[in-house]
């Protein structure tokens, strides 16, 4: 077995462990959003129920609350767009650096 294949197999095993271990360790755990935690703290401090200042724009368009799956999808799309933009500019910087090195080697 080559060195590269061994590395790939080790990395795949680590990836599988990273995916599976939390499923068993965190079984039955409940996760809440930061919005919920913040509104609970405000309610505890003021002694009154927290009222949001505004309703999200998408909720006005559809006339109700956005389903959780749709909200997650929109969040993932925003993340993908942001990562795409960052990766694009990082790629541009890397290519610019390569081009500058090639030009400096040609001159010198």
Automatic annotation (TrEMBL):
GO terms for molecular function: cobalt ion transmembrane transporter activity. GO terms for biological process: cobalamin biosynthetic process. Pathway: Cofactor biosynthesis; adenosylcobalamin biosynthesis. It is a multi-pass membrane protein. The keyword Membrane applies. The keyword Transmembrane applies. One of its GO terms (cellular component) is plasma membrane. It is found in: Cell membrane. Keywords: Cell membrane, Cobalamin biosynthesis, Cobalt, Cobalt transport, Ion transport, Membrane, Transmembrane, Transmembrane helix, Transport. The chain crosses the membrane at residues 7-26, 72-94. Pfam families: CbiN. Part of the energy-coupling factor (ECF) transporter complex CbiMNOQ involved in cobalt import. Belongs to the CbiN family. Forms an energy-coupling factor (ECF) transporter complex composed of an ATP-binding protein (A component, CbiO), a transmembrane protein (T component, CbiQ) and 2 possible substrate-capture proteins (S components, CbiM and CbiN) of unknown stoichimetry. This is Cobalt transport protein CbiN.
């Amino acid at each position: 077995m080559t060195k590269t294949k061994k590395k790939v197999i080790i990395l795949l095993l680590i990836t599988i462990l990273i995916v599976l271990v939390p499923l068993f360790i965190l079984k039955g755990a409940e996760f809440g959003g930061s919005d919920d935690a913040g509104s609970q703290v405000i309610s505890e401090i003021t002694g009154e129920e927290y009222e949001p200042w505004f309703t999200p724009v998408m909720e006005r368009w559809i006339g109700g609350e956005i389903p959780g799956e749709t909200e997650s999808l929109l969040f993932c799309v925003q993340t993908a767009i942001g990562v795409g933009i960052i990766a694009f500019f990082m790629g541009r910087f890397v290519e610019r650096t390569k081009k500058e090195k090639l030009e400096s080697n040609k001159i010198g």
